[in-house]
Inverse folding.
Protein backbone atom coordinates (compact mmCIF):
# COMPACT_ATOMS: atom_id res chain seq x y z
CA UNK A 1 0.00 0.00 0.00
CA UNK A 2 2.69 2.42 1.06
CA UNK A 3 4.76 1.55 -2.01
CA UNK A 4 1.75 2.29 -4.20
CA UNK A 5 1.20 5.68 -2.56
CA UNK A 6 4.88 6.49 -3.03
CA UNK A 7 4.59 5.61 -6.72
CA UNK A 8 1.50 7.79 -6.96
CA UNK A 9 3.42 10.65 -5.41
CA UNK A 10 6.27 10.15 -7.87
CA UNK A 11 3.82 10.21 -10.79
CA UNK A 12 2.30 13.44 -9.50
CA UNK A 13 5.75 14.97 -9.14
CA UNK A 14 6.76 13.93 -12.64
CA UNK A 15 3.52 15.24 -14.10
CA UNK A 16 4.24 18.72 -12.82
CA UNK A 17 7.38 18.87 -14.93
CA UNK A 18 9.83 21.71 -14.62
CA UNK A 19 8.36 24.91 -13.21
CA UNK A 20 11.50 26.92 -12.53
CA UNK A 21 11.75 30.16 -14.43
CA UNK A 22 14.91 30.41 -16.55
CA UNK A 23 14.99 34.09 -15.67
CA UNK A 24 18.34 35.80 -16.23
CA UNK A 25 18.94 33.90 -19.47
CA UNK A 26 15.45 34.61 -20.80
CA UNK A 27 13.60 37.88 -20.40
CA UNK A 28 10.42 37.89 -18.38
CA UNK A 29 7.58 40.16 -19.52
CA UNK A 30 5.97 42.35 -16.89
CA UNK A 31 2.21 42.36 -16.34
CA UNK A 32 0.09 45.05 -17.96
CA UNK A 33 0.04 48.43 -16.15
CA UNK A 34 3.25 47.60 -14.32
CA UNK A 35 5.00 50.71 -13.08
CA UNK A 36 8.76 50.61 -13.43
CA UNK A 37 11.30 53.39 -13.62
CA UNK A 38 9.78 56.74 -14.62
CA UNK A 39 11.27 58.11 -17.81
CA UNK A 40 11.41 61.86 -18.35
CA UNK A 41 10.91 63.16 -21.86
CA UNK A 42 12.86 66.43 -22.08
CA UNK A 43 11.20 67.39 -25.36
CA UNK A 44 7.76 67.53 -23.75
CA UNK A 45 8.76 68.84 -20.31
CA UNK A 46 7.79 72.46 -19.67
CA UNK A 47 9.60 72.67 -16.35
CA UNK A 48 6.54 73.39 -14.21
CA UNK A 49 8.01 71.32 -11.33
CA UNK A 50 4.63 69.77 -10.57
CA UNK A 51 6.32 66.38 -10.30
CA UNK A 52 8.79 67.79 -7.78
CA UNK A 53 6.02 69.29 -5.67
CA UNK A 54 3.96 66.11 -5.70
CA UNK A 55 6.66 63.46 -5.24
CA UNK A 56 5.91 61.77 -1.89
CA UNK A 57 9.52 60.63 -1.50
CA UNK A 58 10.91 64.08 -2.47
CA UNK A 59 13.20 62.52 -5.05
CA UNK A 60 12.75 65.05 -7.85
CA UNK A 61 14.79 68.19 -7.32
CA UNK A 62 14.47 71.50 -9.11
CA UNK A 63 17.12 74.16 -9.34
CA UNK A 64 17.22 77.35 -11.32
CA UNK A 65 20.79 78.06 -12.31
CA UNK A 66 19.77 81.44 -13.67
CA UNK A 67 16.60 83.01 -14.94
CA UNK A 68 16.54 80.91 -18.10
CA UNK A 69 17.99 77.54 -17.15
CA UNK A 70 16.16 75.15 -14.90
CA UNK A 71 17.56 71.79 -13.84
CA UNK A 72 15.18 68.96 -12.99
CA UNK A 73 16.89 66.03 -11.40
CA UNK A 74 15.35 62.66 -10.62
CA UNK A 75 17.46 60.73 -8.13
CA UNK A 76 15.42 57.54 -7.86
CA UNK A 77 17.06 56.21 -4.72
CA UNK A 78 13.95 56.08 -2.60
CA UNK A 79 11.45 56.27 -5.45
CA UNK A 80 8.50 54.00 -4.71
CA UNK A 81 7.28 53.99 -8.33
CA UNK A 82 3.90 55.32 -7.23
CA UNK A 83 3.36 57.11 -10.53
CA UNK A 84 2.12 60.37 -9.07
CA UNK A 85 4.63 62.35 -11.14
CA UNK A 86 3.28 60.72 -14.29
CA UNK A 87 -0.31 61.38 -13.19
CA UNK A 88 0.26 65.02 -12.41
CA UNK A 89 2.37 65.93 -15.44
CA UNK A 90 0.25 68.26 -17.60
CA UNK A 91 2.23 67.51 -20.75
CA UNK A 92 2.52 63.72 -20.20
CA UNK A 93 6.29 64.06 -20.30
CA UNK A 94 6.79 61.39 -17.63
CA UNK A 95 5.95 57.79 -18.44
CA UNK A 96 6.22 54.83 -16.12
CA UNK A 97 8.34 52.45 -18.17
CA UNK A 98 8.23 48.65 -17.65
CA UNK A 99 11.93 48.65 -16.71
CA UNK A 100 12.51 46.88 -13.44
CA UNK A 101 16.12 45.75 -13.91
CA UNK A 102 17.62 48.72 -12.10
CA UNK A 103 20.09 46.88 -9.90
CA UNK A 104 23.48 48.60 -9.85
CA UNK A 105 26.61 48.79 -7.80
CA UNK A 106 26.54 52.58 -7.92
CA UNK A 107 23.44 54.40 -6.75
CA UNK A 108 24.04 57.33 -9.10
CA UNK A 109 23.32 55.12 -12.09
CA UNK A 110 19.56 55.46 -11.78
CA UNK A 111 19.42 59.23 -11.78
CA UNK A 112 18.17 61.44 -14.59
CA UNK A 113 19.10 65.06 -15.09
CA UNK A 114 17.27 67.40 -17.41
CA UNK A 115 18.38 70.91 -18.24
CA UNK A 116 15.64 73.12 -19.63
CA UNK A 117 15.51 76.58 -21.12
CA UNK A 118 12.65 78.53 -19.59
CA UNK A 119 11.04 81.48 -21.30
CA UNK A 120 10.29 84.49 -19.16
CA UNK A 121 7.23 86.65 -18.70
CA UNK A 122 7.66 90.12 -20.18
CA UNK A 123 6.00 91.81 -17.22
CA UNK A 124 7.23 90.13 -14.09
CA UNK A 125 10.33 88.37 -15.40
CA UNK A 126 9.27 85.01 -14.01
CA UNK A 127 9.05 81.74 -15.85
CA UNK A 128 5.41 80.94 -16.30
CA UNK A 129 2.75 78.76 -17.82
CA UNK A 130 -0.89 79.69 -18.27
CA UNK A 131 -2.79 79.50 -14.96
CA UNK A 132 -5.07 76.54 -14.45
CA UNK A 133 -2.76 73.59 -14.29
CA UNK A 134 -0.40 75.19 -11.83
CA UNK A 135 -3.20 75.74 -9.34
CA UNK A 136 -3.84 72.03 -9.41
CA UNK A 137 -0.14 71.31 -9.05
CA UNK A 138 0.02 73.22 -5.75
CA UNK A 139 2.91 75.30 -6.98
CA UNK A 140 3.52 77.24 -3.80
CA UNK A 141 5.97 79.83 -4.92
CA UNK A 142 9.54 79.33 -5.86
CA UNK A 143 11.29 75.99 -5.42
CA UNK A 144 15.04 76.19 -5.26
CA UNK A 145 16.60 72.86 -4.34
CA UNK A 146 20.13 72.17 -3.28
CA UNK A 147 21.14 69.93 -6.19
CA UNK A 148 24.77 69.68 -5.09
CA UNK A 149 23.87 68.14 -1.75
CA UNK A 150 20.73 66.42 -3.09
CA UNK A 151 18.50 68.16 -0.62
CA UNK A 152 14.98 69.48 -0.93
CA UNK A 153 14.42 72.98 0.32
CA UNK A 154 11.68 75.51 -0.11
CA UNK A 155 13.34 78.88 -0.05
CA UNK A 156 10.17 80.79 -0.80
CA UNK A 157 8.72 82.66 2.12
CA UNK A 158 5.34 82.92 0.43
CA UNK A 159 3.66 80.58 2.87
CA UNK A 160 4.51 82.75 5.85
CA UNK A 161 1.83 85.33 6.46
CA UNK A 162 4.15 87.87 8.05
CA UNK A 163 6.76 87.82 5.32
CA UNK A 164 6.36 89.72 2.08
CA UNK A 165 5.45 87.43 -0.79
CA UNK A 166 8.58 86.89 -2.84
CA UNK A 167 10.68 89.93 -2.29
CA UNK A 168 13.01 89.50 -5.22
CA UNK A 169 10.23 90.40 -7.64
CA UNK A 170 9.68 94.11 -7.82
CA UNK A 171 7.13 95.38 -10.30
CA UNK A 172 7.27 99.09 -10.83
CA UNK A 173 3.79 100.54 -11.03
CA UNK A 174 3.13 103.99 -12.46
CA UNK B 1 59.26 31.54 -9.40
CA UNK B 2 57.20 32.76 -12.34
CA UNK B 3 55.87 29.32 -13.17
CA UNK B 4 54.94 28.86 -9.53
CA UNK B 5 53.06 32.18 -9.42
CA UNK B 6 51.34 31.32 -12.70
CA UNK B 7 50.27 27.96 -11.37
CA UNK B 8 49.01 29.61 -8.17
CA UNK B 9 47.04 32.08 -10.25
CA UNK B 10 45.58 29.28 -12.35
CA UNK B 11 44.58 27.45 -9.19
CA UNK B 12 43.04 30.65 -7.86
CA UNK B 13 41.03 31.15 -11.05
CA UNK B 14 39.92 27.54 -10.99
CA UNK B 15 38.84 27.89 -7.37
CA UNK B 16 36.95 31.09 -8.17
CA UNK B 17 35.20 29.35 -11.03
CA UNK B 18 34.35 26.28 -9.03
CA UNK B 19 33.69 27.56 -5.54
CA UNK B 20 33.56 31.34 -5.71
CA UNK B 21 30.01 31.84 -6.76
CA UNK B 22 27.96 30.27 -4.07
CA UNK B 23 26.61 33.08 -1.93
CA UNK B 24 25.16 32.31 1.44
CA UNK B 25 22.88 35.11 2.40
CA UNK B 26 21.78 36.45 5.72
CA UNK B 27 18.49 38.23 5.70
CA UNK B 28 18.45 41.33 7.90
CA UNK B 29 15.43 43.55 8.29
CA UNK B 30 16.11 46.74 10.20
CA UNK B 31 12.59 48.06 10.44
CA UNK B 32 11.03 47.75 7.01
CA UNK B 33 7.41 46.92 6.23
CA UNK B 34 8.05 43.23 5.34
CA UNK B 35 7.22 43.79 1.67
CA UNK B 36 10.80 43.18 0.57
CA UNK B 37 11.11 40.21 2.96
CA UNK B 38 8.20 38.52 1.26
CA UNK B 39 9.75 39.14 -2.15
CA UNK B 40 13.09 37.71 -0.97
CA UNK B 41 11.34 34.60 0.33
CA UNK B 42 9.55 34.44 -3.02
CA UNK B 43 12.94 34.26 -4.72
CA UNK B 44 13.79 31.13 -2.74
CA UNK B 45 10.66 29.25 -3.85
CA UNK B 46 10.92 26.56 -6.58
CA UNK B 47 9.41 28.91 -9.16
CA UNK B 48 12.27 31.42 -9.00
CA UNK B 49 14.74 28.97 -7.43
CA UNK B 50 17.70 31.06 -6.36
CA UNK B 51 19.59 27.88 -5.37
CA UNK B 52 20.51 27.54 -9.04
CA UNK B 53 23.11 30.24 -8.34
CA UNK B 54 24.19 28.60 -5.10
CA UNK B 55 22.26 31.05 -2.96
CA UNK B 56 21.25 29.69 0.38
CA UNK B 57 19.55 31.39 3.26
CA UNK B 58 21.41 30.96 6.53
CA UNK B 59 20.23 31.81 10.00
CA UNK B 60 23.36 33.41 11.39
CA UNK B 61 25.55 36.21 10.09
CA UNK B 62 28.60 34.14 11.07
CA UNK B 63 27.84 31.70 8.25
CA UNK B 64 26.98 34.31 5.65
CA UNK B 65 28.83 35.90 2.74
CA UNK B 66 26.12 38.39 1.86
CA UNK B 67 23.80 40.47 3.99
CA UNK B 68 20.47 41.37 2.43
CA UNK B 69 19.42 44.61 4.06
CA UNK B 70 15.80 45.59 4.02
CA UNK B 71 14.36 48.63 5.64
CA UNK B 72 16.07 51.93 6.36
CA UNK B 73 18.76 52.50 8.94
CA UNK B 74 16.70 53.16 12.03
CA UNK B 75 17.67 54.58 15.36
CA UNK B 76 16.49 51.56 17.31
CA UNK B 77 18.17 48.87 15.20
CA UNK B 78 21.33 50.67 14.07
CA UNK B 79 23.59 49.03 16.67
CA UNK B 80 22.18 45.57 16.01
CA UNK B 81 22.66 45.94 12.26
CA UNK B 82 26.26 47.04 12.72
CA UNK B 83 26.95 44.16 15.08
CA UNK B 84 25.47 41.69 12.59
CA UNK B 85 27.71 43.17 9.89
CA UNK B 86 30.78 42.87 12.10
CA UNK B 87 29.94 39.25 12.85
CA UNK B 88 30.17 38.27 9.18
CA UNK B 89 33.48 36.74 8.04
CA UNK B 90 35.77 38.90 5.97
CA UNK B 91 34.95 38.75 2.23
CA UNK B 92 31.46 40.12 2.65
CA UNK B 93 28.94 41.91 0.52
CA UNK B 94 25.92 43.99 1.45
CA UNK B 95 22.88 44.20 -0.79
CA UNK B 96 20.41 47.00 -0.20
CA UNK B 97 17.01 45.72 -1.32
CA UNK B 98 14.12 48.11 -1.74
CA UNK B 99 13.73 51.86 -1.68
CA UNK B 100 14.07 52.01 2.08
CA UNK B 101 17.52 50.44 2.12
CA UNK B 102 18.66 52.28 -1.00
CA UNK B 103 17.56 55.79 -0.14
CA UNK B 104 15.84 55.91 3.22
CA UNK B 105 12.34 55.14 2.04
CA UNK B 106 9.25 57.22 1.94
CA UNK B 107 9.58 58.14 5.61
CA UNK B 108 13.19 59.28 5.26
CA UNK B 109 12.58 62.44 7.27
CA UNK B 110 10.98 60.82 10.28
CA UNK B 111 12.65 61.14 13.66
CA UNK B 112 13.30 57.40 13.98
CA UNK B 113 14.79 56.92 10.50
CA UNK B 114 18.48 57.72 10.10
CA UNK B 115 18.44 57.34 6.33
CA UNK B 116 19.68 54.76 3.84
CA UNK B 117 21.52 51.67 5.02
CA UNK B 118 24.77 53.04 3.57
CA UNK B 119 24.91 55.44 6.50
CA UNK B 120 25.78 52.45 8.68
CA UNK B 121 27.29 49.84 6.37
CA UNK B 122 29.25 49.98 3.09
CA UNK B 123 26.67 48.86 0.53
CA UNK B 124 27.91 47.02 -2.56
CA UNK B 125 24.76 46.50 -4.60
CA UNK B 126 21.52 48.39 -4.77
CA UNK B 127 18.21 46.90 -5.90
CA UNK B 128 15.63 49.70 -5.95
CA UNK B 129 11.92 49.05 -6.02
CA UNK B 130 9.07 49.22 -3.58
CA UNK B 131 9.13 46.25 -3.28
CA UNK B 132 11.42 45.06 -6.09
CA UNK B 133 10.02 42.22 -8.17
CA UNK B 134 11.52 38.79 -7.48
CA UNK B 135 13.00 38.99 -10.98
CA UNK B 136 14.65 42.29 -10.06
CA UNK B 137 16.23 40.68 -7.00
CA UNK B 138 17.46 37.74 -9.10
CA UNK B 139 18.80 40.26 -11.60
CA UNK B 140 20.68 42.12 -8.88
CA UNK B 141 22.22 38.88 -7.64
CA UNK B 142 23.11 37.91 -11.21
CA UNK B 143 24.82 41.28 -11.65
CA UNK B 144 26.76 40.69 -8.45
CA UNK B 145 27.75 37.16 -9.45
CA UNK B 146 28.67 38.33 -12.96
CA UNK B 147 26.12 36.44 -15.05
CA UNK B 148 24.67 39.57 -16.65
CA UNK B 149 25.78 43.16 -17.15
CA UNK B 150 23.99 45.98 -15.41
CA UNK B 151 21.56 47.96 -17.51
CA UNK B 152 21.13 51.10 -15.44
CA UNK B 153 23.03 54.15 -16.61
CA UNK B 154 22.59 57.80 -15.66
CA UNK B 155 20.55 59.82 -18.14
CA UNK B 156 21.56 63.40 -18.79
CA UNK B 157 19.85 65.80 -21.08
CA UNK B 158 21.23 69.18 -22.01
CA UNK B 159 19.50 71.56 -24.35
CA UNK B 160 21.67 72.59 -27.25
CA UNK B 161 22.38 76.25 -27.53
CA UNK B 162 21.46 77.16 -31.11
CA UNK B 163 23.44 80.08 -32.49
CA UNK B 164 21.01 82.89 -33.19
CA UNK B 165 22.15 85.58 -35.66
CA UNK B 166 22.02 89.05 -34.14
CA UNK B 167 21.16 91.87 -36.51
CA UNK B 168 21.38 95.58 -35.90
CA UNK B 169 20.13 98.30 -38.26
CA UNK B 170 23.49 100.10 -37.91
CA UNK B 171 25.13 97.21 -39.71
CA UNK B 172 22.87 97.51 -42.78
CA UNK B 173 24.82 98.53 -45.84
CA UNK B 174 23.54 99.16 -49.33
CA UNK B 175 25.29 97.12 -51.96
CA UNK B 176 24.05 97.67 -55.53
CA UNK B 177 20.25 97.41 -55.15
CA UNK B 178 20.56 95.07 -52.20
CA UNK B 179 20.66 95.77 -48.50
CA UNK B 180 23.20 93.55 -46.82
CA UNK B 181 24.02 92.95 -43.19
CA UNK B 182 27.69 93.69 -43.00
CA UNK B 183 28.60 91.59 -40.00
CA UNK B 184 26.67 88.68 -38.62
CA UNK B 185 27.26 88.00 -34.96
CA UNK B 186 26.14 84.67 -33.71
CA UNK B 187 25.11 84.54 -30.10
Amino acid sequence: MSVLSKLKEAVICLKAGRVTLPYPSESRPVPARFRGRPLFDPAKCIGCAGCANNCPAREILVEDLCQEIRIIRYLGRRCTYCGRCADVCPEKAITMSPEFENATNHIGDIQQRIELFMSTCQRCGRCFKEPGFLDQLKAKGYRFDDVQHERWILRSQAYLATEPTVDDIKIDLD
Amino acid sequence: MTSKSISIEMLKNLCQKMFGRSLWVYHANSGGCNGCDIEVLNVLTPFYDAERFGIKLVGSPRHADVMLCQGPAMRATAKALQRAYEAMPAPKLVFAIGSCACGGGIWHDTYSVLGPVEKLLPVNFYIPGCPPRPEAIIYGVAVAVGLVDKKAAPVQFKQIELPIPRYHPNDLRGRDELVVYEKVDRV
